[in-house]
């Protein structure tokens, strides 16, 4: 029994069965495939039965139409079809039918959301779906009413990279790995709601189109806990796999997430499907619970603190969707304090298909909407809750409805002042939910009085643990021109050191303030030069950066200086100000230009590498490719946390974000952030030098596997045991990540030689042991380039090239002869033979299974020193000769080819186990008859897609076996037929 099946797949099937799914395990049960073709992914009989059951009035013609309609959705892409199908599953479809009152449109349900028991929940493993090139067989597919909503890929927890391998499989199934996009079967994913990678001791989830790096764990099964799950599943240990399967596939939760926690965001790069993560799902349900318990004895609301970059706007959107469904006619008011945020939230709601969000144009429009438009979704700036110039006294009451729900973004900033008071006067019975990306001050009096206590928190540490954000590191540069107040005179003397005393006196009159000094041209020249050198030497493409300046004038100076120094391609982004002088106004981008600049920056392949800003884009701007922020501006408290979070978004090969400080913002960081709880902000920004102990420890662990890094063969022998190799690989990659973080800082210098040696050991071990899990994924672009350059200089094949096959006899022999010792030759041959058998096993499981056992016995004898190096080399040569001579073996038995040899071995194996006797000539003749019958039908174009052809092959094989002289029972005939079909799939394309 494969480890993957025993350790992950079968336990997952058991868990799903306990969750109420009907489970068919094809490892132990024969399942009759009802499809006409394997290129379809819908179980049409189940779909048909469900539509008829949920809509008992429907006639035959309309039943056929509804069943056809969900399967024949046509779009410009699979993603577009997925969106259309989701729309039909949520909003249903309609048909024209006379139900006694004339011909009218009638709603046809595909899923019953109110009474979940009316639906058909079915699970099947190893479900075959034919793609353009090959058949995919996901480990588990979950069908609701015959529609495949879930795909699960299982891996054994003991393999080297279970997460990576499972996600690679899911990417392959979805055609997300290659530009041609032909290797998988997108048909299955037209319907997909959840894609899950699980290895029992871990699990991550996404949906169709989710990039590998954005699959996330589900750590909290709220509203239940692990004790509840332990009781429900009858286990002592609740694994991440249990938690994930419950969170996504409990019947009620699955339908809830399909209906309320799934949106399609249309961006310039295309449509993106988004599903909730656990903190979003939990926060929404907690908010709804508090709304249901609302009381005048406590504050009418609460605060959701989800750290920057964790999807706060989407949480607002999901809460809005739930409120729309849960309440009869709610009015939703979305409030922020900045035009950019108002635009962003309105656009997010609009793009994601939220029903008709309306933006308040001005103060008058806001009052009108709140006074008259019950049931609307309205976005506004808090500034629109102002009295008109001719008004006196209190703000007017606009509505006393208690069915108004106010969601306030960045609630810490503006909600304790006059405008907030006006809003609450206008809407005295409304329910207020504050959203913030930064923690509330530990001694804050007003926030909890205004909104109530926390509804939900998702901290910086939690987001780092989930890989929802990356760690932000801090580096102070050009310390002698940091603008610390105590050193202004010294800094002034340095910046203007080439001036006379008289000139200095005159300059000092003009440059009297800290900000003026910051904007001095000579200082900006020096800082810009350092930025250019740092960016070119330490930030690897595709990563990009932002330069944060004190003013619009400073931003323009930086931009000009960057251009003068032939620096990275940059754009200056400043706002339009009516009172700005003309030389400033001309630099402010138009709305069209701003959109273009942002798009070119966010695009990894876009030409813009640096954005120069002063205030714009420091909140709400999401650019995962941004890795570095060069700060030459005082930032404090919430503004600091919000600004630096621009570099905390995950991106492939991005191990960290970096803040480079030219202003001295960290010098009083503890003071500036003392207002927050230490636990809340201790990992907000980590000094780069703090990585020194981690780097030292990671280096010690990586080199600790070996006694002598220069003795290559001994090092390779050390890594022969798979568990040792896994441990080394993990330690090595941890060392690489830290080297990527610190390089080229001098901190990395003591470890560079060992990095080269360890990399060579790693590359040679990958080749020797044919270990595909030994890759540089996630180690960082800078260090990857260093390693590849070193490996090539050593003449080692590039890390991702295939090792030499034993079937390439001349090349393999030359490689063996080129090794330095019999020990190395024996090792290379052992692993080459094992790899070849593994790759070819399915072509003839009988012969290759026998060879596999033989090789394992030889290796065991070798380990026990019962065979010398030379003796095992001779034995392995014999095995290689047998693998290479299958054609001769087939001819010697009177068989036409190696395909017939595989059929012959399968027949022989079953006969021997059942003590059946047959003459060899008759067995050869029967083999030929079966091969002819199979080959004739397998010649049909795309026969693997056609279930009817496969059934005909199955029938013909059974007839041949039945009519033979063999006295096989029904179980033996079934087993042989199944084995012949599987062999045919390997041999007949």
From TrEMBL:
<dbReference type="InterPro" id="IPR051268">
    <property type="entry name" value="Type-I_R_enzyme_R_subunit"/>
</dbReference>
<keyword id="KW-0547">Nucleotide-binding</keyword>
<dbReference type="Pfam" id="PF11867">
    <property type="entry name" value="T1RH-like_C"/>
</dbReference>
<dbReference type="GO" id="GO:0009307">
    <property type="term" value="P:DNA restriction-modification system"/>
</dbReference>
<dbReference type="InterPro" id="IPR007409">
    <property type="entry name" value="Restrct_endonuc_type1_HsdR_N"/>
</dbReference>
<dbReference type="GO" id="GO:0120545">
    <property type="term" value="F:nucleic acid conformation isomerase activity"/>
</dbReference>
<dbReference type="InterPro" id="IPR040980">
    <property type="entry name" value="SWI2_SNF2"/>
</dbReference>
<dbReference type="InterPro" id="IPR021810">
    <property type="entry name" value="T1RH-like_C"/>
</dbReference>
<dbReference type="InterPro" id="IPR055180">
    <property type="entry name" value="HsdR_RecA-like_helicase_dom_2"/>
</dbReference>
<dbReference type="Pfam" id="PF04313">
    <property type="entry name" value="HSDR_N"/>
</dbReference>
<dbReference type="GO" id="GO:0009035">
    <property type="term" value="F:type I site-specific deoxyribonuclease activity"/>
</dbReference>
<dbReference type="Pfam" id="PF18766">
    <property type="entry name" value="SWI2_SNF2"/>
</dbReference>
<keyword id="KW-0067">ATP-binding</keyword>
<keyword id="KW-0378">Hydrolase</keyword>
<comment type="similarity">
    <text>Belongs to the HsdR family.</text>
</comment>
<feature type="domain" description="Helicase ATP-binding">
    <location>
        <begin position="293"/>
        <end position="457"/>
    </location>
</feature>
<keyword id="KW-0680">Restriction system</keyword>
<dbReference type="Pfam" id="PF22679">
    <property type="entry name" value="T1R_D3-like"/>
</dbReference>
<dbReference type="InterPro" id="IPR027417">
    <property type="entry name" value="P-loop_NTPase"/>
</dbReference>
<dbReference type="InterPro" id="IPR014001">
    <property type="entry name" value="Helicase_ATP-bd"/>
</dbReference>
<keyword id="KW-0255">Endonuclease</keyword>
<dbReference type="GO" id="GO:0005524">
    <property type="term" value="F:ATP binding"/>
</dbReference>
<protein>
    <recommendedName>
        <fullName>type I site-specific deoxyribonuclease</fullName>
        <ecNumber>3.1.21.3</ecNumber>
    </recommendedName>
</protein>
<keyword id="KW-0238">DNA-binding</keyword>
<dbReference type="GO" id="GO:0003677">
    <property type="term" value="F:DNA binding"/>
</dbReference>
<dbReference type="InterPro" id="IPR004473">
    <property type="entry name" value="Restrct_endonuc_typeI_HsdR"/>
</dbReference>
<keyword id="KW-0540">Nuclease</keyword>
